[in-house]
Amino acid sequence: MEKTKICMGCFEELPDDATVCSICGFDNKTIKREVQKWCQGAVIEKRWLLGCRFSQSDTYTIWRAWDSVLEIKCFLLVLNDDSDMALWDIAVLSKENDIDFKILSAGIVLDRKVLCISADRTDIKEDELCIKENVWGEKDIISHIDNGNTDKNDILPADTLLNDRYQILGIVGIGGFGITYLAKDINLLRNVAVKEYFPKQWVQREQNYVSIRHSGMVEPFKYGLKSFVSEIKMTAKFIHTENIVTVTDAFFENDTAYMVMEYIQGESIGRELRKRKNKLYDTQEIKEIFVPVLKALSNMHERKMIHCDISPANIIRKKNGEIVLIDMGAAKYIYDKKMTFTASFLKPDYAAPEQYQTAKSGKAGNEGTWTDIYAVGATMYHCLTLEKAPDVIKRLESGTDKIKVEHRFKLRDRKKWIKLACDCMELDRTKRIQESYTVLERIDELS
């Protein structure tokens, strides 16, 4: 099979026999291999491969680039040597309503002030991008966060500076394989969430460094680190997708890896459930939660990826009401038959039967879009009844697929919603709803 030809000016696919790119106009016969600063073909800080120059002004130059860490196409805005403009004073806007620009990161690169910018389209023209003064403000920065009873030996102390730009403010959460911090991006004056790969069962903290406990844990640590890097790259594919958390940067430091994401001020549906006590969600609230989740999953499934860890804890409601799906730690490509790192660490109340089979056999099995559908159904059931769905193992052992639902949850239109949740939780994956858009259609019929 022939390799796909890629334009080295904008990193888009080239037609079979073409050398001049129709998008950026770069002639791929003239590729220069000079090793110097800021020229086409140069690799900057072992991370960015420069394409062709996109635009230039008296203040800055914008390069097309390939980010080898996030594995995405991007633009690098490089301020001129004599520019005294602060990076947080720059905004990147579209002159066209259908283009979405996001500033991912900022810093000093080769003695220049640089912004890394992502656009949801790479075929844009110079006159479609507008650079102007921004309106960042200290009022948007949270100065601290209460760490409660967190084990101080595990966490990085407040004010720790990571990658010369992310100042730790406190802890957002701790999981089995990572610690998520609230941090201040001092170059852009905004809050970010920084997730550190820290598998507590294998490592310990020595000052700021992550140290493996003993030699027998080296290989598991390395395998987990590889999976964490995979999570970063998978999440980065959805920078411009609504209802999926946005990753903005990644780096290695302290003998581990870090992922930088948008900081979401809000609350998980899991925490909401714990607070509600006996107050059921009404069906309109259910719709407001699950339509965005299913749309996010549709975007993932279209790219042949499955989330594999849908649960109330991984669905966040922002303060403005927007629903966001987080945590790609267990995500995988549908056709990837390698054993996934998180297969043995399933959420028992939401995982599908085929995930248990994979965990038991040690080999990737029959996971697919239907696997996410099961978890959606189990999460929906929990929201509808305030009770967790029946245990998969017990259902398999009893030999019955039917879920008994208390009569008080079958009133009016709620009965149809529970029927939908149960249809999503069929034990036999071939009988289960297969696609997220089918669930969306069913929801539309219930409205």
From TrEMBL:
Any one GO MF annotation of this record: ATP binding
Keyword Nucleus: no
Positions with a binding annotation for ATP: 195
Keywords for this protein: ATP-binding, Nucleotide-binding
Protein name (record): Protein kinase domain-containing protein
PANTHER family, alphabetized: MITOGEN-ACTIVATED KINASE KINASE KINASE
Superkingdom to which the source organism belongs: Bacteria
GO CC annotation: cytoplasm
Upper lineage: Bacteria, Bacillati, Bacillota, Clostridia, Lachnospirales
Transmembrane segments: none
Residue ranges of domain Protein kinase in the record: 166-447
